């Protein structure tokens, strides 16, 4: 089954609940959805095959899309439904929301544990990141809020390092990228994690593996169009 053709890229869309009820749940198939909250928990344990879509399927839609998967879950499509400044709102058909800023997941909705907000003290080091920029770069600090765990204003420190170059194949189109690793830690949350980002020559994060919350499986994201 295919996505319903009511997805639109526009500013000022309705709230997430209204959008999904009116646009996503009426006549939409479930072949390429991000797993729902309960499904995500099951998939972490059991895993699941990726949704059956290819480049021709992606190119048949005029909308920006990403492929995302949580832990061992299926790789599934999300559609860009709203842009607010530097924040991009990606929606799935079963009420999961990912908000990215410069390629980083800064908020989520509809997951077992939701990241409500992310604020950097001195700006996100992913912006304009290059190998040379790491020479004088200091560890960065961001403040995060989690709704389900009632963690508000938690500081998280991260340090970036360079891993090398890699060519990515995005189901046909290929991109030369530089790979960066981000070591994340928070004494307040008793949390340590490792993120990875693949950034092309234009500065766009083409692929990433991001731990967004303590104890939760990472989200892998690929920008398809």
List keywords for this structure.
single chain, 225 residues, mainly beta, 12-stranded antiparallel beta sheet, 3 helices, 11% helix, disordered N terminus
Task: Set out the fold topology.
Blueprint: H1 16-24, H2 37-46, H3 55-59, E1 65-70, E2 76-84, E3 87-91, E4 97-101, E5 104-109, E6 115-120, E7 140-146, E8 151-169, E9 174-186, E10 191-200, E11 205-210, E12 219-223
Antiparallel strand pairs: 1-2, 1-12, 2-3, 3-4, 4-5, 6-7, 7-8, 8-9, 9-10, 10-11, 11-12
Tell me what you see in this structure.
The chain has 225 residues and is mainly beta. The protein is built from three helices and twelve strands; from the N terminus they run H-H-H-E-E-E-E-E-E-E-E-E-E-E-E. Strands 5-4-3-2-1-12-11-10-9-8-7-6 form a twelve-stranded antiparallel sheet. Strand 2 and strand 3 form a beta hairpin. The two termini are 20 Å apart. The N terminus is likely disordered.
């Amino acid at each position: 089954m295919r996505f319903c053709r009511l997805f639109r890229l526009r500013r000022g869309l309705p709230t997430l609940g209204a959008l999904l009820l009116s646009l996503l749940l009426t006549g939409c198939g479930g072949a390429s959805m991000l797993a729902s909250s309960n499904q995500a928990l099951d998939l972490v344990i059991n895993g699941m095959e990726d949704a059956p879509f290819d480049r021709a399927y992606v190119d048949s839609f005029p909308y920006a899309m990403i492929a995302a998967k949580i832990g061992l879950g299926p790789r599934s499509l999300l559609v860009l439904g709203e842009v607010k400044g530097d924040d991009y709102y990606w929606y799935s058909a079963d009420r999961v929301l990912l908000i990215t800023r410069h390629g980083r997941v800064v908020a989520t909705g509809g997951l077992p544990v939701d990241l409500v907000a992310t604020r950097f003290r001195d700006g996100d080091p992913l912006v304009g990141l290059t190998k040379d920029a790491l020479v004088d770069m200091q560890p960065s600090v961001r403040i995060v809020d989690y709704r389900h765990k009632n963690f508000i204003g938690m500081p998280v420190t991260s340090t970036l390092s360079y891993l090398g170059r890699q060519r990515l194949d995005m189901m046909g189109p290929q991109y030369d990228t530089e790979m960066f690793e981000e070591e994340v830690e928070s004494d307040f949350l008793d949390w340590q994690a490792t993120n990875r980002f693949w950034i092309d020559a234009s500065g766009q994060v083409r692929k990433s593996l991001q731990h967004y919350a303590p104890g939760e499986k990472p989200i892998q994201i690929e920008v398809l169009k």
